Structure formats: structure tokens, C-alpha cells
Amino acid sequence: VQLQASGGGLVQPGGSLRLSCAASGRIFSIKTMGWYRQAPGKQRELVATITSDGRANYADSEKGRLTISTDNGKNTVFLQMNSLKPEDTAVYYCNLDAGYRSYWGQGTLVTVSS
Fold first, then answer.
1. What percent of the chain has pLDDT over 70?
2. At residue 30, what are phi and psi to the nearest 5 degrees?
3. pLDDT in tens, 10-28
4. Least enclosed by CB within 10 Å: which of 32, 63, 94, 103?
5. CA 20 to CA 78: how far, in whole Å?
6. Phi and psi of 35, rounded to 5°?
7. Residue numbers of the chain with a pLDDT score lower than 50
8. Rounded to an integer, what distance in angstroms lies between the CA atom of residue 98 and that of residue 80?
9. According to the model, what pLDDT value does residue 64 have?
10. CB neighbour class for 26 (10 Å; exposed up to 12, middle 13-18, buried from 19)
11. DSSP state at residue 25
């Protein structure tokens, strides 16, 4: 299984970005897909996940600014991020939890700076 993330980049504070992650390969089941991030010098942390039946879970600090969604027909997960802050700067990693195994993408860098 391969996860290809895209959509990162440089954005000014208050701006928006939409991350995408497409899963390919032999996927037998999907429990959740989601996004985690790792800022410099910090541990990787949850941003948001979504179950195969569409139930979303967000980190408490991110509720209201983010929307996670999927296009299950194409095994793709999206993360719409609004009102971005400098502290959102991190490498964002896509995750697919198949239940029996967890898969990670290569990460996409989001930099929020003026």
C-alpha cells in the first residue's frame, strides 16, 4: 500500500490549504484514514481522522478550523485547513489504519509564515 500526499506549501497566517492523500495498492480494508503532523523538535501528533463510514475525529486544538473528508471510491482523504497559524507549521503525514496494519505517507510540508 502506498500513500501519496500533496497540497502542502507556504501560506500566510490566516490563509487556507487543502491537503490530499491518495492510497493505492492492495487495500483489503480501511478502518480510518487521517492526518498527523510533526513540528520541528516535537513529537508526531494527531490532527484528524475519519472512519470508513464518515465519522470524523479532530484534535481538540483543531476543532473548527479543519475539515477532514474522503472520497472512498478513490481511497483518498482530504484535509481542508483554514485560518492557519504559524504554529501549524509542520510536516503533515497521511495515515491509513487497516486494522491489521497502519500505513504512512511520506509527508508534506506546511509552512505558515508572512
1. 98
2. -130, 115
3. 999 999 999 999 999 988 8
4. 63
5. 5
6. -130, 140
7. none
8. 23
9. 84
10. exposed
11. S
